[in-house]
Amino acid sequence: MESYDRRGFLIRIWRWAGGLVAAAGAWTTWDVLRANGAGAGARVRTVAPDEVPSVGVLEVREMKGYLTRQDGEVVALWWKCPHLGCKVPWCDSSGQFECPCHGSVFNRIGEYRRGPAPRGMDSYAVAVENGELVVDTGEVTLGDPPGNETLDEPTTGPECLGSEGG
Amino acid sequence: MSDDEPTIIGNKRVLGIVPSRPPVGERKDPRADDQVMVWPHLLVRHAVVAVAVLLVVLVLAVLFDAPLREIANPTVTPNPEKAPWYFAALQELLANFHPVVAGVLVPGGIVLGLLALPYIDRNPATAPSRRKVAVATFTFFLVAWIALTIVGFAFRGPSWSWVWPWQEWYGEL
Amino acid sequence: MSMSSKLRQTTIGRSIWRTPDAVTERDRAAKHWASFLLHIYPVKVRRDELSFRYSWFLGVISLVLFASLFVSGVYLMFFYVPSPATAYGDIENLQTEVAFGQFIRNVHRWSAHLMVLAVAAHMSRVFYRGAYKPPREFNWVIGVILLVMTLLMSFTGYLLPWDQLAYWAITVGSSMAAFVPWAGDQAQQTLLAGDSVGSATLVRFYVLHVFVLPGTMVMLVMFHLWRWRKDSMLSHPEGGDHE
């Protein structure tokens, strides 16, 4: 053990005490300010399974998303754009999702078509309970990265976007 | 002057000769590194600048009202959704590059680069002609940023599509 | 003897101003030295600092705009409650019911825009003059931090009216934080106090906007000015070869 005089010892004590106070303050601040996750992850009861369309989508505000079908299976999409969080509206005339913020476009089941989004739309877990679809908004599956679409559904008409989005 | 032979002028011994330098106010050719009193010379200029700035703010505030749109609605994203002008360059980058690049690496890199600038650029010269690399680099980034700001601010419309500002105006302050 | 000089000669007057009337330059220097309000200034500066082309007075302009924002902001605080239920109505009320309410809000808004412009221009001017070179490196660093804080002030203030402009600009802006490597989601959720912009976000941004950021900025500005004052008499590293 290295030896030091009384002054060195006291200086060292002060430094450690200061560091300890700083660390405690930083940890407290972080713990106070970090999100506690309240409000997220609610299980939302929605509609009966046979009310979910396979042409077009059904908007459900309580789950902040849309219900639709892929090969008969129900898909619950989160309406938040994976780019920068704008709400992605459904465009009836073209039959796809078109984000007004930066022009990202997704097909009916949320797969990436074009635009600056890094992936397809995120989706929730769905279960059927007592004849009702229950959507777990706490269990989010990230969308697939850009690639081949599994849904063979070309646009049905003009897009809602003003002109060619970036 | 030698130490052993004192110089005598007019019956007086001369101890030293100081170059004549009249007080600052009387000299005909003021120099950049003269020292002048802050009060009143600098203070009066600062006061004039302050009044001018406040006048500009006053005129702007009388002529143009600050915008206020409809109340916030989480279920409807307005189209176009535009950031205030000072973030327009960032938004323009975000529409063209992956968010990690445009939203994190570029702004982070610019801030870190600015912070480190005086420690990277150790060239002591201050004249622009003798620090061409630094001036060129800074100017490049400045011009690029201003260009992106103008494009994002005035040339982008619904869904971030290209519009000519003289046809439709979507700029947001 | 003028009225103000008489006032200064009284017992109370002398206790406040402490120094007699300034007649000579030496008197003025003594007075400057003793003055609280003037102590952020050096007593003397180099002559070239007086000219417009030296700095375009952009630092002073930024400071005046900051003061304008401070004063108008205090007025606005009297009429604003940071809650989604009241915020928007408070702004409407301010604009229609409060005397000069719309005007004060306009002053705050335009001062904010001009300040971003002035601070950015100040930085560019300092760069082109080479005024960040030793021994002024650290004051440049403080200046860059102040620029970032000016932008953060604008960003946090943008949410407060709680209109569509505010809500979606903050949604998009804060979503960028989610792309920070490793801690992206945590960073965004801490910024927003939740998964999306809500009442907790509004309170958080309000506290940052009216207390944390301006308080920090005032301290940094004082430090910035103090260092400018200390360095103001130094000639340029190469003896002012700029022109």
Give a nutshell description of this structure.
The complex is a heterotrimer of chains A (166), B (173) and C (243). In chain A, 17% of the residues lie in helices and 27% in strands.
What's the SSE blueprint?
The complex is a heterotrimer of chains A (166), B (173) and C (243).
Chain A: H1 6-33, E1 43-45, E2 58-60, E3 65-70, E4 73-78, E5 90-91, E6 96-98, E7 105-106, E8 112-114, E9 123-129, E10 132-141
Chain B: E1 7-9, E2 12-14, E3 35-37, H1 38-63, H2 88-94, H3 99-120, H4 132-154
Antiparallel strand pairs in B: 1-2
Helix pairs in contact in B: 2-3, 2-4
Chain C: H1 3-9, H2 11-17, H3 25-34, E1 44-46, H4 52-55, H5 58-77, H6 87-96, H7 101-129, H8 137-159, H9 164-177, H10 184-192, H11 199-231
Plain-language structure description:
The complex is a heterotrimer of chains A (166), B (173) and C (243). By secondary structure, chain A is an alpha+beta fold. Chain A has two domains: 34 residues; 99 residues, Rieske [2Fe-2S] iron-sulphur domain (Rieske Iron-sulfur Protein), CATH 2.102.10. In chain A, 17% of the residues lie in helices and 27% in strands. Chain A has a six-stranded antiparallel beta sheet, with no helix packed on it. In chain A, strands 5-6-7-8 form a four-stranded antiparallel beta sheet, with no helix packed on it. In chain B, strand 1 and strand 2 form a beta hairpin. The longest helix of chain B has 26 residues. The N and C termini of chain B lie far apart (73 Å). The model of chain B has no long low-confidence stretch (mean pLDDT 86). By secondary structure, chain C is mainly alpha-helical. Classes of the chains: A alpha+beta (166), B mainly alpha (173), C mainly alpha (243). Chains in contact: A-B, A-C, B-C. Chains A and C meet through loops of A and helix 9 and helix 10 of C.
CATH topology of chain C: Cytochrome Bc1 Complex, Chain C
What is the total domain count of chain C? 1
Largest sheet of chain C: none
Silhouette of chain C: globular
Distance between the termini of chain B: 73 Å
Uncertain runs of chain B are none
Order of helices and strands of chain B: EEEHHHH
Strand content of chain C: under 5%
Strand elements of chain C, count: 1
Helical stretch count of chain B?
Answer: 4
Supply the number of helical segments of chain C.
Answer: 11
Structurally, how many domains make up the residues of chain B?
2
CATH class of the largest domain in chain B: Mainly Alpha
